[in-house]
Structure formats: structure tokens, C-alpha cells
TrEMBL record:
Gene3D superfamilies: Cytochrome c/b562 (1.20.120.10). Keywords: Signal. PROSITE patterns: CYTCII. GO terms for biological process: electron transport chain. Residues 1-29 form the signal peptide. GO terms for molecular function: electron transfer activity; heme binding; iron ion binding. This is Cytochrome c. Coiled coil: none annotated. The keyword Methyltransferase does not apply.
Length: 159
């Protein structure tokens, strides 16, 4: 048993320790978090998280569709789930559950930019009448979408 534990220690802990110099300082990243804090109600944050998980799932499906050269599927998912068609999802919620009510103008602008980029991607990715699409152009257009995810996440925090 002792030997097993020692082996486990060597296998798991020692490699982890050797990583400490590289990753150690990250443990304190929250202390030096330069992102702007945006205070939201718990209801708005819950709505936002649900929406975010849908964005992430959409992105995953879009990349899978592009990999399978299903350009129209990628385009349709992007328009429906991320594009301008996906705007106003919280319109019917009470004001305190609408994330947009708590966003700064700039944060809102990034959000709108993401929806527009989603629709732009859908147009670029759509297959032509021969059923063909251009994966390179589609990826470039998709980067505008992921760029908006990154821009918002790197600029703002809600906790
Ligand atoms: C306008 C700002 C903004 C944009 C744009 C944005 N996010 Fe977020 N995202 C947030 C904030 C704020 C949170 C943290 C919400 C909270 O927990 O309070 C978050 C959280 C998340 C989470 C974690 C959800 C959870 O369960 O905690 C995921 C995943 C995510 N975003 C994915 C994405 C993806 C993918 C995109 C782009 C397609 C994106 N987000 C675009 C602001 C944004």
C-alpha cells in the first residue's frame, strides 16, 4: 500500500509540482483582475449564464458543421443562436432579470457586435447554389464572433 501511494505520488504529484513555477502565479490572477466589474442582479446573471451556455453550444455545433462541410447548417445555427435573430431573448423578462439593463454602453456594444458578427458569418458561410462553401472565408468571419466573446470576457466580470 505504501509503495502504491509512493508510486501514485510520483505519478501525479511530482509532475504537478514541476508545473508550479509555470502556473503558480496564476493562482493570484483574481487579485490583479483588471476587468471592469459590472454588478448584475442574481436573476440577470442566471439569464446571462443560460444564454452563454447556448452560445458556447452553438459555437461547438458551428465548428462541427464546418468540419463536415455542412455550410448551410453552420449558417443556420449561427443566425438562429448567435445572430441578430437571437437578439432580444430577455425582452419578456422582468427588468431586473434582463442582463442588458445592467450593461455599460460599451459592453452592450460588444454584445450587439457579436449578434451582427453572427449574422455576417451566416451570410459568408452559406453554401452557394452548387452546395459549396468557402471554409477559409467562413473561418475568418467566425473569428469576428469569437473575437466578441473574447473582447467581452477580457473586459468585464460580473463577480
Ligand atoms: C457582452 C459581453 C459578453 C459576450 C459578447 C459574451 N459573453 Fe460569455 N459571459 C459574459 C459574462 C458577463 C459572463 C459571466 C456571467 C455570470 O456568471 O455572471 C459570461 C459567461 C460565459 C460562460 C460561462 C457560463 C456559466 O455557466 O457560468 C460561457 C461558457 C460563455 N460566457 C461563453 C460565451 C461565448 C461562446 C460567447 C461568444 C459567442 C460569449 N460568451 C460572449 C459576457 C459575455
Amino acid at each position: 500500500m505504501k509503495r502504491l501511494l509512493a508510486a501514485l505520488f510520483r505519478a501525479a504529484v511530482v509532475p504537478a509540482l514541476t508545473l508550479v513555477p509555470a502556473f503558480g502565479p496564476m493562482a493570484f490572477a483574481a487579485d490583479a483582475d483588471g476587468r471592469q466589474f459590472v454588478e448584475m442582479s442574481p436573476e440577470a446573471r442566471a439569464e446571462m449564464r443560460a444564454e452563454m451556455l447556448d452560445f458556447q453550444t452553438a459555437l461547438h455545433s458551428i465548428i462541427a458543421a464546418l468540419g463536415e462541410r455542412k455550410f448551410n447548417d453552420a449558417a443556420d445555427t449561427a443566425e438562429k443562436m448567435i445572430g441578430v435573430s437571437a437578439m432580444g431573448r430577455h425582452r419578456m423578462s422582468p427588468p431586473n432579470a434582463r442582463p442588458g439593463m445592467f450593461m455599460t454602453n460599451e459592453m452592450h456594444a460588444i454584445a450587439r457586435g457579436m449578434h451582427v458578427a453572427g449574422s455576417d458569418f451566416a451570410k459568408v458561410a452559406k453554401a452557394n447554389k452548387d452546395g459549396k462553401g468557402d471554409p477559409t472565408k467562413a473561418l475568418v468571419a467566425l473569428q469576428a464572433v469569437t473575437g466578441a466573446c473574447v473582447a467581452c470576457h477580457r473586459s468585464y466580470r460580473t463577480q
